[in-house]
Fold this sequence. Notes:
The structure holds two protein chains of two kinds.
Chain A: E1 7-14, E2 29-32, E3 37-44, H1 47-59, E4 64-70
Antiparallel strand pairs in A: 1-3, 1-4, 2-3
Chain B: H1 23-30, E1 37-41, H2 48-57, E2 64-70, H3 78-93, H4 97-104, H5 110-122, E3 127-133, H6 141-152, E4 158-164, H7 172-177, E5 181-185, H8 186-189, H9 193-201, H10 210-220, H11 224-234, H12 240-248, H13 254-264, H14 268-277, H15 285-292, H16 297-306, E6 311-313, E7 321-323, H17 325-339, H18 343-356, H19 360-369, H20 373-389, H21 393-402, H22 405-409, H23 412-424, H24 431-442, H25 462-466, H26 468-482, H27 486-499, H28 505-521, H29 525-542, H30 545-561, H31 565-578, H32 588-601, H33 605-618, H34 627-641, H35 645-657, H36 670-680, H37 684-693, H38 707-719, H39 724-742, H40 746-762, H41 766-783, H42 787-790, H43 794-801, H44 810-818, H45 835-844, H46 850-857, H47 861-875, H48 880-890
Parallel strand pairs in B: 1-4, 1-5, 2-3, 3-4
Antiparallel strand pairs in B: 6-7
Amino acid sequence: xxxxxxxRYEIRVRGHLAPRWAPWFDGMALVPQDDGTTVIDxxxxxxxxxxxxxxxxxxxxxxxxxxxxxxxxxxxxxSRRTP
Amino acid sequence: MAGxxxxxxxxxxxxxxxxxxxxxLLDVLDGTLEAALTVVSAPAGFGKSTLLAEWLAAVPASTxxxxxxxxxxxxxxxxxxxxxxxxxxxxATGVGGSALGLLTSxxxxxxxxxxxxxxxxxxxxxxxxxxxxxxxxxxxxxxHEGIAFLLEHRPPQLHLVLATRVDPPLPxxxxxxxxxxxxxxxxxxxxxEQESATYLNGPMGLxxxxxxxxxxxxxxxxxxxxxxxxxxxxxxxxxxxxxIAGFAGDDRHVVDYLAEEVLARLPDATRDxxxxxxxxxxxxxxxxxxxxxxDDGRGTLVALERANLFLVPLDDRRQWYRYHHLFADVLRAxxxxxxxxxxPELHRRASAWLADTGDVPAAVDHALAGGHVDRAAxxxxxxxxxxxxxxxxxELVRWARSMPDEVVRVRPVLGMAFAxxxxxxxxxxxxxxxxxxxxxxxxxxxxxxxxxxxxxxxxVDEEGYRSVPAGLELYRAALALRRADLGATSAHAQxxxxxxxxxDDLTRAAxxxxxxxxxxxRGDLARAEAAYVESLAGLHRAGxxxxxxxxxxxxxxxxxxxxxxxxxxxxxxxxxxLTDPVAPVRGTADMHVALAGVLLERDDLTGAAExxxxxxxxxxxxxxxxxxxxxxxxxxxxxxxxxxxxxxxALLDEAERVHDTDxxxxxxxxxxxxxxxxxxxxxxxxxxxxxxxxxxxxxxETTYLREYEHLTLARVLLARRDDAxxxxxxxxxxxxxxxxxxxxxxxxxxxxxxxxxxxxxARRDVPSxxxxxxxxxxxxxxxxxxxxxxxxxxxxxxxxRALPRHDPAHAHxxxxxxxxxxxxxPRTLVDPLSDRELDVLRLLGSDLGGPEIARELSVSLNxxxxxxxxxxxxxxxxxxxxxxxxAHDLGVLPRVR
Lengths: 83, 897
């Protein structure tokens, strides 16, 4: 994993998050999944930005399921991404 | 200083009505009183604060006092954080107040403060439970280190409780392994089905079936905030069963779902109020009115609290509240979603109200949050004089780092203040650049500063604009000192002084001290003295006591070197009287040490020991950075004066390890002090190794900064007992004497003359030796210098005895003689020699014959013979040669090699 430049992350939380929370996640997409989770997907500037996101999730009391670093270029959910 | 304190932040919240009794958790928390640390760690809305308030209400006041601090993001500033903690401890216990003096007197030292608090708590008969609520909001490593320090050094009476959403960065495993950790975590805090039933059907006034409760509890996973929202949604509903089914069958985040339900059912006016005031961190009626433009703020807050709408009271008088964090986030999300365009205006109103009521930092935060950067900059600029006076440097540094460069570049007053704050905080990285920006912006043509700011620049503090040129010079002087460019330091400091208005005590004091420091390091002590006196007066007028004491260390040293021991003593006694005996500021210990040094020089060993004890009793935390090493050097010299040379050596080794001159010139380096002690111990090789190590030679150019080392080198040369030593030393001392005389350094001069006397004696030039000694003693007498002479031991004792009775220096010489350690006192003779007999004996040691001696003393040859017989009898010898030899052995006569 490259230590500089943005890295794409897929953060999965339990429950469906309303789209109004999007500003809390700085341009990332909130994608509701059929299994009752939400995937927060998008580029994250650096490690401290990632920690900031996780903290926001904690502050909202949303249970965190997983955090995955994904390929920076390929969108993870091309078919389901919100614009 | 941390600025005005909000009482609501350090008041323990009372029990909240309608709380479910949770005996299983209260039992766990009872372990707090046996443990070092209790961590209550769970996400928002798990009832952490409520549980703690419940437990604390049941702890009898006779068992433990409770200090509570509700933290927020701004407590990342260590001074602010610890000011609240100490204030809370003091409010709860009445002890710990003395530590506040350390925090509020700059330069503040967190560790010093903590030691003072721990000492006070450790001396207290009651236990103290210190609760830090919402500790996750504090992320600064300095604060975390302070908390770790507190834990590591805690007295058994202190129990720390951290309520947090994330585990604190502390070695929890260590405390767990020692059985010193009590933990209450999310799994423990979740409502059991039984607790959910008690809560929903009790305080929330519902009448739910067991099945409904189980469904809700399962969906909410015992999360109290969710259950509370659910209860609010169900109140007054006819179709409770349908609501529960809808909730259970929905995938939405529980809070999202429920908050929407709750908000949708509120009257529009209440909903508007909640959304608009959600921009506030803390709420009070008039502030809400300012933000909403309505006049029902206070009433609405009371009604919201009564309706359990996630409003947390911050004080007993119901003046200040905050929204529950989770609910505040939901409200802000709705506000952003529905009317984002109104948010900047809401922040502007909040900022205006806060600025009017004096909470400038909070007003600045709202201005920045609303995107009103220029408004924030205006507020900062206007607040700057007060912030500077109150030494709120951490806040200023935070401001400096948060304000965009392009805004600061057109604001010379703000730019100057930021440069100053960063320099004060020793964050020099951008200072030079910021000063250059200010200068370029104002563009002084041909050296003259425009009386009015050039067009395009923003100045709200016109007084501040007038002091920009002085500030520029002042901080350039500080930068010059940092790179040890003394000439530039002096020049800039001088410029700053000439540009500063007479009424600006602080700038004048800072410039004076910088100039004084540079003059001191360059050996111009008269000028340094004048600068420090001026600086001290300014600091005194401004009420900066710890800074006054810091200046007094330098000024006392300078006066001693100038030979003004009495002035140094008066200065230190005056400075000690400035400090509050109940809450002594940092620097108080330094004043005791300085006084001990003066008294020691006067040979008042008892007085010196008392002041060293006083310094020790105050603790190192009441000392400025130099005190650890300075106190050990004075203690070493006291032991030396008492003849404990081993103890003195050990202390000097310690002094070297803790050495820190804190920007002062190192005018008496510890290794040189130790080399002198080595000589006194007869360890010439060690002293020679030191001189080699320091590359010192008798031909060196003599500068003031190396004066102490060169005087030490002269002693090394003298101790060599070879032919070349005294000659080399003589040349060096002649130059040192000229330099000391030229610099009017009488203190230095006494020492030079003492050494010249010893060198002349070594070269068998007794008249020159006595001449130099006479001058030294004459200079020493009026100010009471003793040890500078007496520390030379038996060789100087012999010379002192040789001063004739009719000599003006004779009387003080006798006093000096009494202070010499290890000098064989003449009273070892059963019948001591009279002064006249000593005169004769001295000449018996020369090549003169009897008649010549008689002529020299203007007496008859018979008289000389009578004296000679008497001398032989007293010394128990029978020949002139034996008499001289014996006299040398006894130290009655100076030894001649």
